[in-house]
Design a protein that fits this description.
alpha+beta; 4 domains; five-stranded mixed beta sheet; 10 helices
């Protein structure tokens, strides 16, 4: 049988068909990108990966061009489309992050631009797990079994006899009154022992040094002693040891679905790296629809009154209140600088302390305290 040799006409038809298909695919991708309608203060586009559009991944924009750092994060839809809305004019680093991925290369962009982004698959389960929420890593913690309670003390199982149940142990050393009350347990900073902490014979000793660090060190150390110091240190040490040896969370997080993809997260920096601003509030956790786009409050003293909802806007704010008590967006508002934020916080604290002192003593706030509180 003789070999088939296509004619020039057939070849031309095949080439034309190939070009048409290629252009059609390119045109479709361009059409998808252009399908994202944006305003002059938005950045939008489509995220694609090795298998096509990437649904349920995060697109993050960050800038340090403003008085304080701004980060905004959104989630892609089923077609990989995203929209970063209401961005102040600045140059942003924009990138993709998601479960099953590693961070993509950051791309420079300004508002009013359509930007196509490429997702990067994680090369291994271990690398993918680095992006899991902290709670997935915390799930590897092995608490003492229920049969170990009540505790039998240092000469027994190492758990204090005052701890009567497993639930009480978890509350006092893990959850509400324990480590997670202030720290993101399971985050990289807590699931690993940093080399800068020092050299130790074992992880329990490393945790013994860790919990004595910082302004709250005395309180953390006391809590471990209260529940049974050696047993608590061994529990957290075992957790970090198993992670260091390669143990991974049993399940991977699901990408955002449905209405979860409608969430827009906006974060402004405030204060400075040296501030110990412990409390902040933007709404009422019992009724989170309170105070939309309204003033936020913060205080540098743990336990100090922090809620400004419906009250003064002397603190750091992100909107203005109307006479009806509702809030409206102030398009001209911009975040205060770090220095101004600290000044605002000190001013707010002075006002709160003045009211507390006057209420308790019946006398005005002292000039000496005013001087001490001045930044």
């Amino acid at each position: 049988m003789s070999a088939f040799i296509p004619s020039r006409r057939v070849t031309a038809v095949l080439v034309a068909a190939l070009v048409a298909v290629t252009l059609g695919a390119v045109g479709a991708r361009q059409a998808d990108t252009k399908a994202v309608a944006i305003d002059a203060d938005d950045i939008g586009g489509v995220v694609t990966g090795p298998k096509g559009p990437e649904a349920g991944v995060f697109v993050i924009a960050e800038t340090t061009n403003l008085p304080t750092r701004l980060i905004k994060s959104v989630v892609t839809d089923d077609q990989g489309r995203y929209l970063l809305p209401d961005l102040p004019q600045a140059t942003y680093d924009v990138w993709v992050r998601g479960y099953g991925l590693v961070d993509s290369q950051k791309v420079k962009a300004t508002p009013g631009k359509v930007l196509a982004l490429t997702a990067v698959a994680a090369p291994s389960p271990r690398v993918a797990a680095e992006y899991y929420p902290a709670a997935y890593w915390l799930s590897l913690l092995q608490v003492p079994p229920a049969s170990d309670f009540p505790g039998t003390g240092p000469g027994g199982n190492g758990i204090s006899p005052t701890i009567k149940s497993q639930g009480e142990w978890i509350r006092n050393i893990v959850n509400t009154d324990g480590c997670t009350g202030c720290h993101q347990m399971g985050g990289k900073a807590t699931r690993e022992i940093p080399e800068a902490l020092g050299k130790f014979p074992n992880s329990s000793a490393a945790w013994d040094r860790r919990i004595q660090s910082g302004q709250a060190g005395a309180g953390m150390s006391a809590r471990f002693t209260q529940v049974g110091r050696e047993r608590a240190l061994a529990m957290w040490g075992d957790w970090t040891d198993r992670i260091a040896k390669g143990e991974l969370p049993a399940t991977a997080p699901q990408r955002p679905q449905g209405k979860e993809r409608n969430v827009v997260v906006t974060m402004w920096d405030w204060a400075d790296p040296k501030a110990y601003l412990h409390d902040e509030i933007a709404s009422d956790k019992r009724n989170p629809i309170v105070n939309p786009n309204g003033p936020n409050g913060a205080a540098p003293i743990p336990g100090l009154i922090t809620s400004l909802v419906g009250g003064s806007t002397a603190g750091v704010q992100n909107g203005t209140s109307s006479s009806s008590g509702s809030t409206r967006r102030d398009a001209s508002w911009r975040p205060p600088s770090a220095k101004n934020s600290a000044t605002a916080m000190a001013r707010l604290t002075r006002r709160l302390l003045r009211k507390i002192a006057t209420s308790l003593t019946g006398r005005p706030f002292s000039a000496m305290t005013e001087l001490v509180m001045t930044p």
